[in-house]
Request: fold
Amino acid sequence: MKSIEHDTERAVVVLDKVSKKFGDRVILNELSLALYEQENLVILGKSGAGKSVLIKCLVGLIRPDSGRITILGKDTTELDEEELNAIRLQIGFSFQGSALYDSMTIFENLAFPIRRTNPTIKESEIENSVNERLDEVGLLHTKDQLPSELSGGMKKRIGIARTLILNPKIMLYDEPTAGLDPETASDINDLILQVQKKHQTSSIIITHDLSCAHATGDRIIGLFDGYNKIEGDYETLKNNPPPELVSFFNYVQN
Amino acid sequence: MRNSIWVQIADASLFLTKIFRTLFRSPLEVKEIINQSYQMGVKSIFLISFTSLLAGIVFTKQSQPSLASFGAVSWLPSLVSQAVVRSLGPLITGLICAGKLGSNIGAELGSMRVTEQIDAMEVSASRPFSYLVVSRVLATTLVLPILVIYSDIISLFGSFLMVNTFTSTSVDLYISEASGSITLLDVNASMIKSALFGFAIGCIGSYNGYNAKSGTTGVGIAANKAVVTSMMSIFIIDLIMLQFLNFFR
Reply:
């Protein structure tokens, strides 16, 4: 198996030969990769390629069968729940379906993680943080609404605002443009770039959308057969697409 | 199949252990427990009032001819009060709550699981297990005894209405007759039993909801399993408590 070398010294996230199987089906096959500081790393692959499993392994929602995952210098596969939670505070996870708490208003959705992680914080401070984040994604006017009253694009933006509320160092986006029209998808791509610039975050963006990969990615990894077969920037991959990515580029050109 | 049953038992045992561990290690979610208890109480009160009143009326009406044939109609208040406090009240309330609260907890947590809301809480270090599961288990454990007391009172009121039409018994006499036959052991046992019913409903509903799978179908399955298993557990707990209490009577 071809292995891509990484400079693990500079990396904020390192995956070292991570494997995961569900039954007999191999999802991640000794996958190794690194995310560097203030970098937007896109992980591109078809549906069912294991992208979402990979991102869930990163935050400890799924435990890998073998291999090591190092985040900000700590091997998360060996941490107990308390230690893992301390690492999770440094990570913002934007879910594919936004995962907003549907019984809470938008304000409560953003206030909830603050109240849970910092019980002694003053209400005025919570209100300021929530207003600031909602303003950042241009949806301050929705704060008293319920998630069911918002469109898909608005939910995505609120989801991103909620992940930013705890000031994470690392952002993980799971299919940020899935199910959105091209214009809204483009707005979300701009928001991802804006977040990186303003908050100096390092991001992993999981997608099967090549235009999202193009717009947001500093570096692209192609995930096929459970490991990273291809790695490079968009132009390099476009000018000389490997067989696994030919169909992606053909689709965009057509 | 055998393997799957053992895996489920092991999984449920781990879930139960996690509830106790979280209960003793994490701070209590007082606000959420009060909120859940209030919601659960309000949601169940109408159905419990209706069913308990009817149960009291029907039980009294059906017992009256049997007692009358022995010339013992005056025993009706003590017969009904013993039946209500020892068994009928906790059982009616337990079964209603198994249906109403069990399905509610199973569906609510199940829907949060399949829409990744629980995952979102977990990745933001918001400790969803303590917030969602332990608070609900404590709320059902606290609320059930209160609802059982309420159900007992309503059932006895229904019974009084019936007794009053047969014998023109006054309220004072009825209360005196009914309370005279109930011991402290009966009341304590009823409270412990209802708390155990509540604990079982909370644990079973939460377990099925928290571990729901397979999209919207999974939510339905979780709610259904929560109700069926809770109802079964209520009868099992009732039977065990009955055997246990025989040692003290």
